[in-house]
Automatic annotation (TrEMBL):
<feature type="domain" description="F-box">
    <location>
        <begin position="1"/>
        <end position="46"/>
    </location>
</feature>
<dbReference type="InterPro" id="IPR001810">
    <property type="entry name" value="F-box_dom"/>
</dbReference>
<protein>
    <recommendedName>
        <fullName>F-box domain-containing protein</fullName>
    </recommendedName>
</protein>
């Protein structure tokens, strides 16, 4: 009778990667070979949090010559869950981290790092028109200090890391030239970059969330600050934003090219002109995976004159509609056009997902494979600047709102065409998906790939 230990070591190692932590701890009490496999899985990823127990755990690993050889990835989670948000407490750099964090460079196999912030963010804007019910504990000062410490550590490693992630990166870049220089150096040579981007909310009037100067400046600087330094070597790019972006606030990726890009994941971004499709298609020689999480076609939009410079389209491409002082535009491509383009012009594509992952209680991070494929009705949205609670009509049926007085246009009706084109794309990829289900996170019902209203 075959024994477990008769299996190849590589297969046993791969199998152990699916075992939960509790079982791995039990396996460490078995034979020496299985114990080593379990130990390797338990300590491949290490976590540092502000609480003292977490700091002591990492210190024990650093002090053990054998365990120190194992970690490949570290999460540095700055969130102090003991703080009382209602008490207006300001978070400080955890006591003991100044001594502990630099020691991380003594992990010889470390090649991946993630910096985690709180999802709540309050910028330094203090315009009297902007009112907040609370200021979150992690101030811009704290976040910039943490980023300086984090990138100082990564810059000092014996071998440059290959995978970098920042969870809840604030939509406000550091101002310190030394920090920016460290960021650029670390980004150079990366293989994988994941950014989930949080931004400030106006509690009293959320329709003004996109009017903060920080978020507008951040998205215009995102390509040059965070993407361009990594472009020559990057194989995986994941961008996920709390706010819909691309059009307003302006995010232009057209001047970027990633010659090694294999995997692209985008969340809460919008298609609104052909140049964005052209940008994806110019990576056809390498692109193998695409993930769209709550990604939408922005089929109709308007912008107030004073906000035109904050959107992605020049003034001369926008028009007025009768009886309205805003500037309007529209995009005629539909999802079936996009699916057909991917089918025809991305010969190396092997995996495609469009739909939703879990956006509660936080912006998705490292959840591409959790996206449940489905054509949700908010795959088509409109953006009407000045309307609230968000200028993006997400989850609404614009047909019920369309009137001659306001010039709004109804949502496209092309479920059959979109479904057929998506099935054609998935068939080409040899990819099977569940076509009917109830979304456990949102309670939505998908029938034959399309959300049922």
């Amino acid at each position: 009778m075959p024994r477990l230990l008769d299996l190849p070591g590589e297969l046993l190692a791969h199998t152990s990667s699916y075992v939960d932590r509790s079982s791995l701890k039990s396996l460490r009490q078995s034979c020496r070979f299985i114990s080593q496999l379990a130990t390797d899985q338990l300590f491949r990823t290490v976590l540092l949090q502000p609480r003292e127990t977490s700091q002591r755990g990492l210190q024990k690993i650093l002090n053990n010559p054998n365990l120190r050889q194992i970690p490949r990835k570290i999460y540095i989670d700055t969130v102090d869950e003991s703080l009382n948000y209602d008490g207006e407490e300001e978070q400080k750099w955890p006591q003991g981290w100044d001594n502990l964090v630099p020691q991380v460079r003594e992990l010889p196999q470390l090649n991946a790092a993630v910096l985690c912030f709180d999802k709540g963010f309050t910028s330094d804007s203090r315009d009297r028109d902007y009112y907040h019910y609370m200021d979150f504990p992690q101030t811009p000062r704290f976040r910039f200090h943490a980023m300086h410490k984090f990138f100082s550590l990564l810059e000092s490693l014996r071998h440059p890391i290959q995978d970098l992630g920042i969870r809840n990166l604030q939509a406000d870049n550091p101002k310190d030239p030394k920090t920016l220089a460290k960021i650029g150096k670390v980004l150079s040579g990366l293989r994988s970059l994941r950014l989930s981007i949080t931004s400030e909310t106006n509690d009293a009037a959320p329709e003004h969330d996109l009017e903060y100067p920080e978020i507008r400046k951040f998205f215009k600087e995102l390509p040059s600050t965070w993407l361009s330094p990594a472009a020559p070597s990057l194989q995986h790019l994941s961008l996920c934003s709390r706010e819909y972006s691309g059009f307003y606030p302006h995010l232009d990726l057209s001047n970027l090219f990633f010659p090694c890009l294999k995997s692209l994941s985008l969340g809460n971004f919008c298609f609104f002109h052909d140049g964005q499709l052209d940008w994806i298609l110019k990576h056809s020689d390498t692109l193998e995976e695409i993930y769209f999480d709550d990604y939408a076609v922005l089929y109709d939009f308007c912008i107030k004159e004073w906000n035109v410079d904050a959107c992605a389209l020049p003034r001369d491409t926008l028009v007025r509609r009768e009886g309205n002082d805003s500037l309007y535009g529209s995009f005629e491509k539909r999802w079936h056009h996009i699916f057909d383009l991917f089918t025809e012009k991305l010969p190396k594509l092997r995996h495609f997902r469009i739909g939703r992952s879990n956006w509660y209680p936080d912006i998705p991070f490292e959840q591409e494979m959790d996206i449940e494929v489905g054509l949700y009705y908010n795959r088509y949205i409109c953006c009407y600047d000045g309307y609230g609670p968000s200028p993006y009509m997400e989850g609404e049926d614009p047909k019920e709102l369309a009137t001659l007085e306001n010039g709004w246009r109804p949502s496209p009706e092309c479920d059959d065409e979109d479904r057929a084109a998506l099935r054609k794309l998935l068939a080409k990829l040899g990819q099977s998906v569940q076509e009917s289900y109830s979304n456990k996170h949102f309670g939505d019902c998908i029938v034959d790939l399309v959300e049922r209203r």
